[in-house]
Design brief:
heterodimer; A: alpha/beta; Glutaconate Coenzyme A-transferase; 10 helices; 23% strand; B: alpha/beta; 3-stranded mixed sheet; 13 strands; globular
Chain lengths: 272, 248
């Protein structure tokens, strides 16, 4: 039987320096406990793909020096303001930025999911988003007549890192309504999942649960991380910790404050 | 009846929405959300059961079950009629900038990013631009970065684009690549709009005042919309309508 629930650091072994790592937006459940573990390990030179946006997770990893290239559509702390370490990294030119638009990231991963080299997408033509993406191409729609359309290469991450409410002892992971996690996982070569808890029984045996289950076939390793999205929320389970996010926004506004945040909440004190 | 600026803006936007099937509103947009829910209440009164309203970021007010892509797939098929966009900068050609200020090689200021704009601006028939800060800092002659262009070459597939720009001072319409001043909000003047707008726009010989929301509109907003809104934007609903979140 699939060996379930490794220690977190062991489960994260597939994420190596220089990996292309795909992570979800916070409303799909951002794996924050795993993110802190990667920072503690000192992972470097990641090509981080955030589907299709990110908040605290990308800001933290950028600030901690884990990211060489960021590919996403936006990074912001939402109601808590701009993402300070992201902004500083762009204006200070310490990371390479591949600006995208949300459906382009979905489409690029869908191409990988299907094993095809590219996906076409409407929009984009005439934008500077397209202008600065030399990996995207414009062709004349072969089924049309003078109809330019953008082709996006498949995004093939080395690892997808997700957090979900539960997994079973067979390695199946229940993601419920957060279907974009399935796209990420199908597209990536390997998947690491953290979960709130282990479910007794086989998730695929219950037809109601099976519809929201990611088969263990795709999953490399699983670790239990209770409240693993903290200080962000997990949909339908727990809300974001607004007080902590406000504290982060304040501390991360300066490099010194951010270093102190890392010391206090990442290197020393584990998520409450 | 007296009204507050938020009620006026929501009323203006609801009129722009008109009779459509599906309005989608992005995150952190309480005034467009108020307008969309107002349009839905009007539809209910007329017995037409439109528009369907999706408030992104609120699981209760969205039907998506196929991940984040479903919104964009819906839009690509023409299943979304109205959407709202904004910009750190908006220029006179309807171009919006959600990315940066300054040269691309060395930007002075970085905004969050383009989100879905570089796609939705092309495929949603009625995009309403909404930017409360009406200044020469935000409304510029030419944006520093085009997240999404206001218009496209004739051979570029485009079923959508901007129809209007609503600010705290006035309402502009947008057609043929230019903005036109339609009305100035009560308490504001055409001179003031000209002074604070960085781009050129068409200005009819006589520009009227934005009509105040009717008593019926205010009643719908306060009695029917506000309690719905309180579940999604509790702070806004309390400030503007004095309504607390209702237990469900």
């Amino acid at each position: 039987m699939f060996q379930i629930a490794k220690p977190l650091d062991e489960a994260l072994a597939p994420v190596t320096d220089g990996s292309m790592l795909v992570v979800p937006r916070e409303v799909a459940g951002a794996p924050m406990a795993a993110t802190r573990a990667l920072i503690r390990r000192g992972v470097k030179r990641l090509h981080l793909v955030a589907l299709p946006t990110s908040s605290l997770q990308a800001d933290l990893m950028i600030g901690a020096g884990c990211v060489a290239t960021l590919e996403t559509s936006a990074v912001s702390l939402g109601e808590f303001g701009p993402a300070p370490r992201f902004s500083a990294a762009i204006t200070g030119q310490t990371i390479s930025m591949k600006d995208a638009t949300c459906p382009a990231l979905h489409a690029g991963l869908q191409a990988a999911e299907k094993g095809v080299p590219f996906m076409p997408l409407r929009g984009l033509i005439g934008s500077d988003v397209l202008k600065y993406r030399d990996d995207w191409k414009v062709i004349d729609n072969p089924f049309g007549n003078s109809d330019p359309i953008v082709l996006l290469p498949a995004i093939k991450p080395d690892v997808a890192l997700i957090h979900a409410p539960m997994a079973d002892r067979f390695g199946n992971v229940w993601i419920g309504r957060q279907r974009e996690l399935a796209t990420m996982v199908h597209a990536a070569a390997r998947t690491v999942a953290t979960v709130e808890k282990i479910h007794d029984g086989n998730l695929l045996d219950d037809s109601v649960l099976a519809a929201g289950t990611l088969p263990g076939f795709y999953v490399e390793s699983i670790a239990i991380a209770e409240r693993g999205c903290w200080p962000l929320g997990l949909p339908d389970r727990y809300a974001a910790d607004a007080e902590h996010l406000a504290l982060y926004a304040k501390m991360a506004a300066t490099a010194e404050g951010f270093a102190e945040y890392l010391d206090r909440y990442v290197y020393e004190k584990k998520a409450a | 009846m007296t009204f507050c600026p938020e009620e006026l803006l929501a009323s203006v936007i609801a009129d722009l929405i008109g009779d459509v099937r599906h309005v989608a509103v992005g995150n952190a947009s309480p005034i467009p959300a108020t307008a969309a829910l107002l349009a839905r209440e009007r539809g209910k009164l007329q017995g037409i059961g439109r528009p369907y309203v999706s408030l992104l970021g609120s699981p209760k007010h969205t039907f998506w079950t196929d991940g984040g892509r479903e919104l964009f797939d819906c839009a690509g098929q023409g299943r979304i009629d109205v959407f709202f966009l904004s910009g750190g900068q908006i220029d006179g050609h309807g171009n919006i900038n959600l990315v940066e200020i300054g040269p691309h090689e060395r930007p002075k200021v970085r905004f969050p990013g383009s989100f879905g704009s570089a796609y939705l601006y092309y495929v949603v028939p009625k995009v309403i631009l909404f930017r409360t800060e009406h200044s020469r800092r935000t409304l510029v002659p030419q944006v520093d970065f085009i997240s999404a262009p206001g218009t496209s070459e004739p051979n570029v597939f485009r079923t959508g684009g901007p129809i209007a720009l609503v600010t705290n001072r006035c309402l502009f319409s947008f057609a043929n690549g230019r903005f036109r001043l339609e009305s100035v909000h009560p308490g504001h003047t055409v001179e003031e709009v000209t002074e604070h707008t960085g781009f050129e726009f068409d200005r009819p010989a006589s520009v009227g005042e934005t009509p105040a929301p009717s008593p019926e509109t205010l009643r719908l907003m306060r009695e029917a919309v506000a309690p719905e809104l309180a579940a999604v934007y509790p702070q806004f609903a309390r400030q503007v309508f004095g309504v607390g979140a209702f237990a469900e």
